[in-house]
């Protein structure tokens, strides 16, 4: 039976890399029933809408969502990010952002579990006396016991399933003494339920240093929304480049569809030139297959991507090479 997939090609190179991801998935023998959705910066510029509520409700009916990239320089910052990406994450309760990082030749193999629906991205705050010399802007960080515990528990389960069975919490508990205290207390409580998982703690600034100097120390990391956003881009930089960086926005309860996307952005400067590396999108599609119980196909795709060495080829040629390596 075909999996029902909502496809958001988006802006810039998004449609190009998603075309290759779908080509590879189908070549791996997985049946997909895809529906394209016009959700992008280009749509906003055309008619002023980002993600209408009726479209959001339609997305709920799919098995998964595959997204290429969204954003264009002509759209003000935050319009697409909050109106599309964050709206889907919050409304579909995709509370785990999972980012894998692997560079076997350097011994790098770790996962970052980022809390995906709270923290500073929850939107708490506002302006006072905006556009005056006495303007005040506040941006709060929302941390609930429910939100913190469920993402930490997910991370422990993930660590327990891996050979090293090691989990590091990253935060800034010495300065963020309220949210950090909640995270640390919940982490310690949940840790007692997983005696076979070893644990560690890093301040986020120290973790940035370790990502560069000693990324091999990590197995699974769990952290909050803002710190996770920053660390995972750095993780991409130290594990082969952002052109290989895949991600999943997951609802582990499977109540709503999870969303999978490369994190390289829309790259408007090379859009339409067949210069984009599609591997991040293809690896994101492989993560999607893991969630859809197509683990064998997902692993075959990952191995085929690892065999792709000519990254100077065009976008379709790289996709063809990965198909040939399946």
Short description:
With 326 residues, this protein is of the alpha/beta class.
Could you please describe the fold and organization of this structure?
With 326 residues, this protein is of the alpha/beta class. It folds into two domains: 1-94 and 251-326, Isopropylmalate Dehydrogenase (3-Layer(aba) Sandwich); 99-240, Isopropylmalate Dehydrogenase (3-Layer(aba) Sandwich), CATH 3.40.718. It is built from eleven helices and twelve strands. The protein has helices at 14-27, 41-47, 53-59, 79-91, 145-160, 179-191, 204-213, 225-238, 279-291, 295-307, 315-325; strands at 3-10, 32-36, 64-69, 96-103, 108-115, 125-128, 136-139, 166-171, 198-203, 220-223, 246-250, 258-262. The strands form two sheets. It has a ten-stranded mixed sheet, sandwiched between helices. A two-stranded antiparallel ribbon has the order 6-7. Strand 6 (125-128) and strand 7 (136-139) form a beta hairpin. The mean pLDDT is 96.
């Amino acid at each position: 039976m075909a999996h029902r997939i909502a496809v958001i090609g988006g802006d810039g190179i998004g449609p190009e890399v998603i075309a290759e991801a779908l080509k590879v998935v189908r070549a791996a023998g997985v049946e997909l029933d895809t529906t394209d959705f016009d959700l992008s910066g280009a749509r906003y510029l055309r008619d002023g809408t980002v993600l209408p509520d009726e479209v959001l409700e339609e997305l709920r009916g799919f098995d998964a969502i595959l997204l290429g990239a969204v954003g264009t320089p002509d759209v003000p910052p935050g319009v697409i990010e909050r109106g599309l990406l964050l709206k889907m994450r919050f409304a579909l309760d995709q509370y785990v952002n999972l980012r894998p990082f692997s560079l076997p030749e350097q011994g790098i193999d770790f996962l970052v579990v980022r809390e995906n629906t709270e923290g500073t991205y929850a939107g708490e705050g506002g302006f006072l006396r905006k556009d005056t010399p006495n303007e005040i802007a506040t941006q709060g960080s929302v941390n609930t016991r429910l939100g913190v515990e469920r993402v930490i528990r997910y991370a422990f389960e993930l660590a327990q399933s891996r050979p090293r069975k090691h989990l590091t919490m990253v935060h800034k508990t010495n300065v963020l003494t309220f949210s950090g205290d909640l995270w640390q207390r919940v982490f310690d409580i949940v840790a007692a339920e997983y005696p076979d998982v070893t644990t560690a703690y890093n301040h986020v600034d120290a973790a940035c240093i370790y990502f560069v100097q000693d990324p091999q120390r990590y197995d699974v990391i769990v952290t909050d929304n803002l710190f996770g956003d920053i660390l995972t881009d750095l993780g991409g930089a130290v594990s082969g480049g952002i052109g290989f960086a895949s991600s999943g926005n997951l609802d582990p309860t499977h109540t709503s569809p999870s969303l999978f996307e490369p994190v390289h952005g829309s790259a408007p400067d090379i859009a339409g030139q067949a210069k984009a590396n599609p591997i991040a999108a293809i690896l994101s599609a492989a993560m999607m297959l893991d969630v859809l119980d197509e683990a064998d196909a997902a692993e075959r795709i990952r191995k085929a991507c690892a065999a792709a060495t000519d990254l100077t080829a065009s976008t379709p040629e790289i996709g063809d090479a990965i198909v040939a390596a399946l």
